[in-house]
Amino acid sequence: MVKIMTTKELARKVKKHEETLILDVRNTDDFDNWKIEGGKVEVMNEPYFNLLDGVDPVVEKLEIEQEVIVVCAKGGSSQMVAELLEEAGYENVYSLEGGMKSWSEHLEPVKVGELSGGGTLYQFIRLGKGCLSYFVEANGEAAIIDTSRMTGIYEAFASEKGVTIKYVLDTHLHADHISGGRQLAERVGGTYYLPPKDAEEVTFDYTPLEEGKDIKVGDISIQPIYSPGHTIGSTSFIIDDRYLLTGDILFVRSIGRPDLAGLAEDWVGDLRNTLYHRYKNLSMDFIVLPAHYSFAEELGEGGQVSAKLGELYQRNSGLRVEDENQFRKMVTENLPPQPNAYEEIRKTNMGKISPEEEKKKEMETGPNRCAVER
Ligand SMILES: [Fe+2]
């Protein structure tokens, strides 16, 4: 019987920066588009069909006693390859349960820090896509920010902590993943907030996020800051006067892309204004917590993705292009490919279409691609 590794076990290894060797047996196109990354992960690709007549193609690259985790799309062919490797004498072989599909859905909670008056802020890391969501709890109440589609995970976490989810907030209308915000709010009887400028086409009721109208989670205040540029409505949050949740405007290593609604030319000025004026007037001691990361190296100590705002003005190259025309050029010339199915994802998040669960999974495969690539 081949040994199985769960996505949770793999996530722990990645988060702890343990050396991890992955053998991905999907075809090379799929592998090149999207793979397991982060921490000290080393990953090699050998398509499944090359291994059917024998595992020789990987034997040269693999020490017999080395631990290796075989990964495929759904966990079927990885199990077969793992068996073949075992038959060839490898003893430390695992098959990743559920494959990339499960990996894409795993959320790993990391405690960011204590809030004043006994509250706590958690970051939920979706290692398979590089999406980050946040869980703020204080005095028995909770708010979730940029909720993923796997809403049950937040509900379970809330009941484990003995808190009630009262508010569900999205920093913007997402194009890279399906928001679970509205669904979660409905399930728990909470209030769902969206920036009104991103919500002009939505088909459901929501509460508008507005600067000047703080949201209170117990004694903790969440202060919305209008910060357009990635989308016209993009809104950041200052939490407990210490943390700045930047959504998809500012990341640790890069900046947000302005083009996912096809309006790069219009929004690049807004993006510049937010990054070079609006944020610049905030406290440089704020700890930036973004909605995504794109590079494995952004996963810091214990897996957390964060940095001080002041540090980012020193080392994030997207914040260091003073000349406006040069900035415009840098952003528009470095746009990565659009995320998988982004138009359908936007429509789903607006409530215009409601795909079946299987279809949703398929729409979400692949990396997030919300940043400008440099
Ligand atoms: Fe986004």
UniProtKB/TrEMBL annotation:
Rhodanese domain mapped to chain residues: 16-112
One Pfam assignment: Rhodanese
Gene3D superfamilies: Rhodanese-like domain (3.40.250.10), Ribonuclease Z/Hydroxyacylglutathione hydrolase-like (3.60.15.10)
Residue stretches of biased makeup (Basic and acidic residues): 354-364
One function term, GO molecular function aspect: sulfur dioxygenase activity
Region feature (Disordered): 335-374
GO biological process: glutathione metabolic process; hydrogen sulfide metabolic process
Extent of the signal sequence: none
Name used for this protein in its record: Glyoxylase, beta-lactamase superfamily II
Source organism per UniProt: Oceanobacillus limi
Classification lineage: Bacteria, Bacillati, Bacillota, Bacilli, Bacillales
